[in-house]
Amino acid sequence: MTMNELHWSVQSTYPVLGLLQLLPLGAMLLMIAMRHRRGVLPVGIVAAGLELMLALDLYRMHDHATATMQFAERFTLFGPFGYHAAADGLTVLFVLLNAVLTLMVVVYSRARDMQPYSRVLMLVFAVEATLMSLLVTVDLFWFLLMSALQLIPVGYLIWRWATSPEKDMMSTRFIQFMSTGLLLLLVGTLMLGWNYADATGKGWSFDLFNLSRVGVSEPIQSLLFFLMFYGLAVRTPIFPLHGWLPVVAEHGSIAVAPVFLLGLKTGIYGMLRYVFPLMPEAVLQWHQYVVAFAVVGVFYAALLALLQVNLRRLLAFAVISHTGVLLIGLFSLGELSFQGSVMLSVNFGLAITGLAFMTGLVYMRTRTMLLDRMGGLFDRIPVIGIAFLVAGLSIVGMPGTPGFDAVHLVLEDSMHRFGALVTIAAAFGNVVAAGFLLIAFQRAFLTKHSGSKPMRKVAPASLMEQFVAISVILVLLGTGFFSEPWLELTEHSLKGLTDLFAQEGAH
Q: What are the tens digits of pLDDT across the range 317-355?
């Protein structure tokens, strides 16, 4: 099995992948120098805007008609460790998502009045730099390193701006789960490097193209699959490895950290980039078991969501339930399902961002996330309510949102691969999800408050908050009505995986 080699003929006139990583790092260093001075927020907005322009330029230069990796950048550090970056359509799509989410977070931090701005934005750009690096790298060890580094600023964001006195317990739970996932990923990475050295006698390597040239024996491949899959599944999060998310959602920060932690599905990206190409036999051997757990997870999380009285915990279980649908698509192993899963990842990223932002703005007014202490919010903050509703409907794939085409692609391939039972279960789980999100919207925004404790006086949305809410609506509807360019972007990049599993299945 071989990967698509680098397409050296497609190059930019400047090191675009390197700049995508260095620009947020430079913005962070500039903010450190400007600490506590005026002008930090405008610098952050300009830097995030420039990063988005770079991502759009990468999209413009990318040759959509080829499946090969493009814009290669490489240099050796020492031994098996080196910098090796390249991009295909999958990379470009996730880079665009990362840039959009960062800009939205910067604007939200101003609307939410998160103080001190300098510290918040320094952490935001540190996260963006690590995310850009793990997205453009084609070196497995570099991916692992950036994944670990990203969790440091994200963990601090969750703890520093937590809204609960239980934040230390929450941080401990977060660290335990994430450390376990990283340890599994580290062991799998080292075993792949050792396997390359043992097979070739050329020394260790973590380069994706080198690893793809050597085979892995069946017993070891299954072990590697579970190490890598579980290591990434913790972050995704996938049932039953989701235990950290409800706790973090209830006791941690409301929006900024969850956007980066959940909005950009780095676990799904890692599976598509490394696990599926390097361990196809193990994926085919175990994919039915993974889908079985995914189906259970869809209903388990959906039923728990219906029982929640805390809006943040409800949204956490919504994420877990819909990740199960995404996993069903991913392990259907067909061309349509791969495209649908990638589009679902983008859809979830944008929708989760919208829900997190609107939840944060609601909390700022009510100082509670208990649904029985809310009610009638639509009368005071209608734009925020509309944005919450659109984001919720986007998660369940309503027409006009980016999840609509994605869910249909996933269900179509799921029917072909697993038959009617799994497909109906996934579709029914999606209907249940629509139910609990609509119930949450009704109780928080439409139903009049009837709790024993009086509600706080709710102030109308400021112009900045209305701008954030309208931006969420426009981004979701814009990507929903014009989803064809994103499908074209990933079509050829994912074709190699489709052909690979067609060949493996024929054997």
A: 888 888 888 899 899 888 888 888 898 888 888 888 999
Q: What is the Cα–Cα distance from 169 to 161, expressed in whole angstroms?
A: 14
Q: Residue 228 and residue 224: Cα distance in Å, rounded?
A: 6
CA 507 to chain centre: 34
Q: Which of 383, 310, 309, 398 is nearest to 351 (CA)?
A: 398
| Exposure b/e, 307-327, CB count within 10 A at least 16 = b | ebeebbbbbbbbbbbbbbbbb
Per the CB < 8 A criterion, the answer to whether 267 and 235 are in contact is: yes
Please, which residues bridge with residue 69 across strands? 6
d(CA 446, CA 134): 42
Phi, psi values for residue 8, rounded to 5°: -65, -20
Task: Evaluate whether residue 409 is within a structural domain.
Answer: yes
Banded model confidence at residue 8, pLDDT cuts 50, 70, 90: very low
Instruction: Report the distance separating Cα 86 and Cα 133, nearest Å.
Output: 10
CA-based R_g, the chain, Å:
22
Please indicate, yes or no, if residue 11 is contained in any of the structural domains: no
> Does a structural domain hold residue 156?
yes
User: What gap in Å lies between CA 252 and CA 241, rounded to an integer?
Assistant: 19
Instruction: Give residue 192's domain range.
Output: 16-506
Whole-prediction pTM value?
0.92
The two most distant CA atoms of the chain are separated, in Å, by 73
Residue 255 domain-assigned? yes
Residue for token pair 């029917």: 415
Residue 64 three-state SS: coil
DSSP 118-132: HHHHHHHHHHHHHHH
Total domains, the chain? 1
User: What Cα–Cα distance (Å) separates residue 317 from each residue in 180, 301, 345, 362, 402?
Assistant: 21, 5, 16, 19, 21
